[in-house]
Amino acid sequence: MSRLATGIWVGAYMTRLGLENIPAYVVQKGDATAGAVWVKVARLDGTAELWERQYDLMADVRHWVRTMAEAEFEIDERIRRETGRDRDLWVIELESRDGRSLLDDPSLA
Prior knowledge:
Blueprint: H1 6-19, E1 24-28, E2 37-42, E3 47-56, E4 61-71, H2 72-85, E5 90-95
Parallel strand pairs: 2-5
Antiparallel strand pairs: 1-5, 2-3, 3-4
């Protein structure tokens, strides 16, 4: 399976979010070719969700999984720890009161 370079995927995702009027920011720029991507969805009420793309070896597909739904400061702390260890990690933060992230769109897998 051919993979799209991470930097290209991030650019396309940011464009899609912009077209849907969902404010989004690249908080941490990682490796342009193969860095992992985390998406933080700030719900603007002190809570947030953290999404990670995971690979299902048995089905040979990638899909987005919500790995945390906590107070925003707890997610920020996890991101801080992980970016300290993994400089290739991309972190995108978006603001969405209703939690809309477009990650349920199969074209973003």
